[in-house]
UniProtKB/TrEMBL annotation:
This is Mitochondrial import inner membrane translocase subunit Tim44. Residues 100-250 form the Tim44-like domain. Keywords: Membrane, Transmembrane, Transmembrane helix. InterPro entries: NTF2-like_dom_sf (IPR032710), Tim44-like_dom (IPR007379), UCP031890_Tim44-rel (IPR016985). Residues 53-83 are annotated as: Disordered. SUPFAM superfamilies: NTF2-like (SSF54427). It holds the Pfam family Tim44. The chain crosses the membrane at residues 20-39.
Length: 251
């Protein structure tokens, strides 16, 4: 066959006798690579949609059926229920070298059973009894916790509140700290001495006073931190005496 018998397409007649078209080949390769890349990206799920979360496998011996997974055991409740233990109250007691500490030491000499820590325990008990009893107007519960003069003042406040149709709400949520600020001994008749100890009490309460229509007059229904100064009094040298509330005021 001679060269005259070869007929090239008209589109290639212009390229005959010229160099090989490498630029077209490179563009074709890039187009194929880009198409493959787009398929890999668009043909798969993205994000968490493409993640299969299987349970962890259970390892069993050959021929044994897979063991059924069980959830971890729940914590066992204590015998006292789910109530959390009461937070520890911070007691602040003056050192024996201070003036107040020296007077507390004298009280220990007057009564061998007296200790500052034991006194603060008694003061805490009185505080926890007086706050809700005063709010509820429970006169019987207040009896014996105060000196006669202080009890009369509390009862007068309860009577005035009742006549005005007001209601007191006092929810004691917790006591943060109790600190002995001052102490004194006052000589009485015979061999008796009256001991007085002033305590600063920091507590968290919901304290609110409402009128006849239930509208708030004073306070708030939110938990609020209160700082109070309570003065406790007791007679030494007489049997059967105990600490009682002698005065109270905001700190």
């Amino acid at each position: 066959m001679s060269s005259d018998d070869i007929h090239l397409p008209s589109a290639l007649i212009g390229h005959s006798g010229h160099e090989f078209p490498w630029d077209i080949v490179v563009l074709a390769v890039l187009a194929i690579a880009l198409g493959f890349r787009l398929y890999r990206v668009l043909g798969r799920r993205i994000g968490m949609q493409g993640v299969r979360q299987d349970r962890p496998p259970v390892f069993t011996s050959p021929g044994q059926a897979p063991a059924r997974q069980t959830p971890p055991p729940l914590p066992v409740a204590s015998a006292q229920g789910n109530a959390e233990p009461a937070p520890q109250i911070e007691y602040d007691i003056p050192t024996p070298a201070t003036r107040v500490g020296t007077i507390l030491g004298q009280m220990t000499q007057l009564d061998g059973g007296f200790t500052p820590q034991g006194f603060l325990k008694d003061a805490e008990t009185i505080f926890r009894q007086v706050v809700p009893a005063f709010a509820a107007g429970d006169r019987a519960a207040l009896s014996g916790l105060m000196t006669p003069e202080t009890e009369e003042a509390f009862l007068t406040a309860i009577n005035a509140r009742t006549e005005a149709g007001e209601t007191q709400r006092s929810d004691l949520r917790g006591i943060e700290s109790m600190a002995i600020l001052d102490a004194m001994l006052v000589a009485g008749e015979g061999n008796t001495q009256t001991g007085r100890i002033e305590v600063r009490i920091v507590s968290r309460q919901v304290n609110m006073l409402t009128d006849r229509q239930g509208e708030p007059v004073q306070g708030t229904d939110a938990v609020t931190e209160f700082h109070d100064l309570w003065l406790f009094e007791r007679q030494f040298g007489m049997s059967g005496t105990q600490w009682r509330l002698a005065a109270s005021r905001p700190a």
